[in-house]
Amino acid sequence: MTRITKDPAERRQELIDAAEQLFLENGYGQTAISDIVKKLKVAQGTFYYYFQSKDDILDAVVEKNVAKLETSIKQLTRNGNEDAAIRLNYAINGILEFVIPRKEVMNYIHQDINAVMHARLERAAVERLIPILSDIVAEGTLQGRFRVNYPSESVEFLIAAIVYLFHQPQIYLDQQHCERLCRTLEIMMEKTLEVNDFKFKLKIQT
Q: Is residue 36 a part of any domain in this protein?
C-alpha cells in the first residue's frame, strides 16, 4: 500500500480540527490524545511531531478561533479615515455577528465539561479585542468624538457587557428581552463614551 504523505501544515490543521470537535463533543478533560489520533487514523507519534501535549493543541484550537474573530474585526475597522463612532459600531456588530450564528458551538463551550476550553477561549478573545477597540476609542477621544478619560478601561467594561450576552443562551429565546438588552447596550455605550451626535445601532439576531 502506498503511504500518503500530507503537507505538514495540512496535517497540523487536521489535528487541530479533530481535537476541537472532540473537545466540544466530549469535553477537554474527557478527551485523550489517543482519541485525537484515532479519529484521524494516524500514529500517536504524528501528534507529538506537531504538539508537545494536549494543552498545547488546546492553545492551537483557541488560537484558530480567536484569530478568525480578530481578523474579522480588523477588516471591519481598517479604514482609519472613517468616523471613530462608526468604526466602533462596526466592531461591536462584527463581534455579535461572528459569535451569535455559532450559538450551537457556544452552547457546547458553556457546558461544564468544556470549562477549561471556555475559560481559555474567552480570555484570549478579550485580550485580543481590547487593544483594537481601545485604539478606536482613543482616536475618537483625541478627535473630540468621545469624551473618555480611560479608553482601555472603558472598553474592558464594554466587552464585559458583550460577554454577558454570550453567557446567557436563554436570552435568544425571548426576542423582546433580547431587543431590550440590545437597546440598553446602545445607551450604555453612548453614555460611557459621551459620544457627540451619534446613535449606536447594534444587531442581535435571535
A: yes
Q: What is the DSSP string of 61-110?
A: HHHHHHHHHHHHHHHHT--TTS-HHHHHHHHHHHHHHHHGGGHHHHHHHT
Helix (H, G, I), strand (E, B) or coil at 9: helix
At 169 the pLDDT is 62
- Whether 84 and 67 map to the same domain: the answer is yes
Q: Which domain, by its residues, includes 42?
A: 8-53
- Residue 61 to residue 56: CA distance in whole angstroms: 9
Q: Does residue 22 surpass a pLDDT of 50?
A: yes
Q: By CB neighbour count within 10 A (0-12 exposed, 13-18 middle, 19+ buried), where does 85 fall?
A: buried
Count the domains in the chain. Answer: 2
Q: What is the CATH number of the domain that holds 26?
A: 1.10.10.60
| Residues 98-106, mean pLDDT to the nearest whole number | 65
H or E element in which residue 203 lies: none
Sole residue written with cell 457627540:
196
pLDDT, tens digit, 9 for 90 and up, residues 142-171 = 999 999 999 999 999 999 988 887 776 666
Euclidean distance between the first and the last CA atom of the chain, given in angstroms as a whole number: 51
